[in-house]
Amino acid sequence: MAGKLWITTSVIALLGSGAAHAQATQVVEGQAATLAEVVVTAERRTTNLQTTAVAASVLSGEQLQDKGVTNIETLQFSMPSVTVQNSGQGNSFNIRGIGKTENNSNIGVGVVTYRDGVAVFPAYFQNEPFYDIQSLELLRGPQGTFAGQNATGGAVFITQRNPDLDGFGGYVSAQYGTYDNIRVHGAVNLPISDTLAIRLAANRETRDSFYSVIQGAASLGEPGAVDSNSARISLLWQPNDALRVLFKTDYSHIDLGGYPTTLLGANDGLFNIRTNGPFLAKDESVRSVLNVSYTFENGVTLRSITGYQDGTTQVRSDSDGGFGLLPINNQTVQIYATERILSQELNLISPDTGRLGWILGAYYQDDRTQFPQGRSVAATLFPPLPFLVTLTTEGDNPKTTAAGFGQITYELTDALEIQVGARYSRSTAENRGLTAIPLLGLSLVQDDRTSHEKVTGKVAVNWTLDADNFVYAFVATGHKAGGLNGPNLALVAPKPFESEDVLDYEAGWKSTWLDGRLRTQLGAYYNVYENFQIILGDPVVPTSSAISNVTGKTEIYGLEASAQGRFGNLGFDLGASVSHSELPDFFALDARGPLTGNCNPSTGPASATCRNVGGNAQTYAPELTVSAGVEYTFALGSGRLTPRLDYSHISETWATIFANEALGDRLEARDIFNAQLTYENAAGDWRLQAYGTNLGDLEYVGAVKSGQRYAGPPRQYGVRLTKTF
């Protein structure tokens, strides 16, 4: 760790030493000389990031492209305290070690992702590409007031570009890269009148798989390939200054060829797969958002955000890694699931005048996940039998959430203000399912219901020392609702799990230096979680899982620092986090070992599989993360040439709470280098880019889920041409 911190300090020193030279150099025409203002909207009103009491990172759509962030997975290489685990059709966010480690629809995500103000699907459909993006805001720490339950680790707000009433315009971008990667995306803005505009955007991408099926028929599929089609239509109607109506509909169809994985220890190399079963991995989803706001004569704004989402996911995976003529020890899992979410949020927002500011809100969500058919073919359950035993599962998991929230901000003086926010949430979850082994005439029927309610909130003190320095401290709480474990393959009635609660203490200092050329953010946090929710493997079917609670208090604390600079032609950004997490004494059954007797969470007894995980780190909670990027713009002919280099370090993490290195739980530290060379003409309407990601071609395990491992993407490079009109 000391070496990494020394590297970071050295980079800061080198950039600082070059600042004077950069200022003295003539700024290339069209290049901003200082940093632009950064705003956040996550607290339901637009505020300056430097004077908002929240630990956050914000990137514009152009910055996302320059950093090579094209989807959720690649976001982890551009921000501190973030890890993302890609498991085929699911990407699981973890912020400060809190998030989700499995694609399980019954557990809260820990990090809630919003698109255009609507919380997206919590389990599947996480591979939507980034195209025509306006901005991305990532908030670290519990967001119990505005994001509500399940945001115990943080929240991500993605804003896609809105129609513009001012004029016709748009862009088209074409890309070709390694693995025969072809991507074309673009958008067009069409003003219909002075009050009505439409924006159309689309994305098309194909790519060969990184993986090779080294034993098995080619007709079984191409796991890890990409065939993606997405489109969006947006409509803005603004008849006057008071009323604004914005409607968007997204469609996405993604074919990933299959899950690119096998069980730990069953394959030869990260990118080689043995299989005797066909692969399938497809997602199709539609999302519609209606955002209506009206500002009254007194400045108060009433806003309504209505969301509708409907998706279907299909999975077929060889989950044992085996290959042979006899189906002994072979297991194929097939899942077909649909999810439909209806949501409604109402906000009443005070004007930004006077010492008192306030916001009131109400929220309702109805989420229904259905498994109309599911199948696991497994001889592993009964090794002596030389034939396949079919287990079927089907179920319906409806969940509803209702909440009311509010926050007031009062300026005690011109420099000192207090904020008090609160949210009341009530949630219900049902589990109606059937698991059966038709061959043996065995079945298990589930029909359960549970409900939870909680008040969360935040109390903050904000102090503006002067125009360039802002200090804050707050205490906040968060809540992840309890629920019911879904239909399983063990033919044993699953147990419900309890709510998870967190108490968060944070303090921070944000500062602006050198006449707006340099900004810094420094923060510290201490989180205490009670009834921390974890996912444990099924002792009968290791590729299935169930949710449980850690008794006692789980602690996570750390420091975060970031900086952004613009000195004429030189631009840079830095981010780093140091954290520590520790589980309390708690006995848990490691399903990967031989079955033993009972494993009581409090008393054990300890054995090879009943493990006390006390003192172990939380999963996917690196002690150190570092991200750094630097770019410099040169005049070249009548245009501009900008080389950019980005670096990311994520220290070692553990994929399970058991921290068993022999079973593949340890994920090695990784250092990733990305680069981009951009040429832009004088008019700024043509841009040619050469890019490379994972330049060192580092092979690393990006995630381990349900006893299966997933590789991080290898080195890729290519060219991209963009025309703006």
Automatic annotation (TrEMBL):
<dbReference type="Pfam" id="PF00593">
    <property type="entry name" value="TonB_dep_Rec_b-barrel"/>
</dbReference>
<keyword id="KW-0798">TonB box</keyword>
<protein>
    <submittedName>
        <fullName>TonB-dependent receptor</fullName>
    </submittedName>
</protein>
<keyword id="KW-0732">Signal</keyword>
<keyword id="KW-0406">Ion transport</keyword>
<dbReference type="GO" id="GO:0006826">
    <property type="term" value="P:iron ion transport"/>
</dbReference>
<feature type="domain" description="TonB-dependent receptor plug">
    <location>
        <begin position="49"/>
        <end position="155"/>
    </location>
</feature>
<keyword id="KW-0998">Cell outer membrane</keyword>
<dbReference type="InterPro" id="IPR036942">
    <property type="entry name" value="Beta-barrel_TonB_sf"/>
</dbReference>
<keyword id="KW-0410">Iron transport</keyword>
<dbReference type="GO" id="GO:0009279">
    <property type="term" value="C:cell outer membrane"/>
</dbReference>
<dbReference type="InterPro" id="IPR000531">
    <property type="entry name" value="Beta-barrel_TonB"/>
</dbReference>
<keyword id="KW-0472">Membrane</keyword>
<keyword id="KW-0675">Receptor</keyword>
<keyword id="KW-0813">Transport</keyword>
<keyword id="KW-1134">Transmembrane beta strand</keyword>
<comment type="similarity">
    <text>Belongs to the TonB-dependent receptor family.</text>
</comment>
<feature type="domain" description="TonB-dependent receptor-like beta-barrel">
    <location>
        <begin position="274"/>
        <end position="695"/>
    </location>
</feature>
<feature type="signal peptide">
    <location>
        <begin position="1"/>
        <end position="22"/>
    </location>
</feature>
<dbReference type="Pfam" id="PF07715">
    <property type="entry name" value="Plug"/>
</dbReference>
<keyword id="KW-0812">Transmembrane</keyword>
<dbReference type="InterPro" id="IPR039426">
    <property type="entry name" value="TonB-dep_rcpt-like"/>
</dbReference>
<keyword id="KW-0408">Iron</keyword>
<dbReference type="InterPro" id="IPR012910">
    <property type="entry name" value="Plug_dom"/>
</dbReference>
